[in-house]
Design a protein that fits this description.
The protein is mainly beta. The protein contains two helices and 13 strands; from the N terminus they run H-E-E-E-E-E-E-H-E-E-E-E-E-E-E. A hairpin with a 3-residue loop joins strand 2 and strand 3. The protein is elongated, with a radius of gyration of 26 Å.
Length: 219
């Protein structure tokens, strides 16, 4: 049998296998979350899904001691458990991607991401995990928890206002605004630059967290 004939026989014997493989359906794409919501993982009892379109994590810090620089983190997720009838049992866990920082200034953002400040290559994530919730009054809570930034964990308190709850045809919505102030040196961010005797970046960082979350009707 010559070489050409042998090649044709081999090709013919494998042709059905190739056709069958071509007919196999392509793998299904992983499910994606609806716009403005986190991935659709099963919710725990009293769990809520964060509406990302109407939520934000923002901060501000003094510039030269006379004005403010405002920024936010664009990429983050939060797991929220909240029962309006038992707010002390609430809990929250938040994961923030440090590389998503945005202050509307490319050069400034690059500096913030560098080892001078957030050191995103070494510490790509910062987290907050609640430990207990204290009820102040009908619309205010104090959330005690741990903030981890640049590998350093410190206790912080989020002074939280319950902005309101709505009952809709598709489920409930709840909104919170939480604030706290941290000192950046506590987390190893000690870099200081002076311009004409004034500190370029202030020591205190004021943080504001606005959350709107959805509790879908069970189907």
């Amino acid at each position: 049998m010559n070489r050409v004939l042998r090649s044709l026989i081999v090709a013919a014997s494998f042709a059905p296998l190739g056709a069958a493989a071509a007919q196999q359906p392509a793998p299904a794409a992983p499910p994606t979350a609806p716009p403005g919501q986190q991935a659709q993982t099963p919710l725990p009892p009293n769990g809520w899904r964060v509406d990302m379109v109407h939520s934000a994590i923002r901060f501000r810090v003094r510039h030269l001691g006379i004005s403010w620089v405002n920024g936010e983190f664009k990429t983050w997720q939060a797991d929220l458990v909240y029962d309006p009838n038992n707010p002390e049992a609430a809990s929250v866990s938040t994961h923030i991607q440090t590389a998503s920082v945005n202050t509307n200034g490319d050069r400034r953002d690059a500096d913030i991401k560098s080892g001078n400040y957030l050191a995103i290559d070494s510490f790509p994530e910062m987290t907050f995990t609640s430990r207990r919730v204290e009820r102040v009054d009908a619309t205010h809570l104090r959330i005690h928890g741990d903030l981890t930034l640049r590998g350093v964990t410190k206790p912080v308190i989020l002074d939280t206002e319950i902005s309101g709850i709505l009952n809709g045809s598709r489920g409930k919505r709840v909104a919170f605004t939480a604030t706290t102030t941290i000192t950046r040196q506590d987390y190893g961010i000690v870099f200081n630059r002076l311009v004409e005797g004034a500190q370029v970046v202030g020591d205190e960082v004021r943080i504001t967290i606005d959350i709107e979350a959805i509790q879908p009707i069970a189907t």
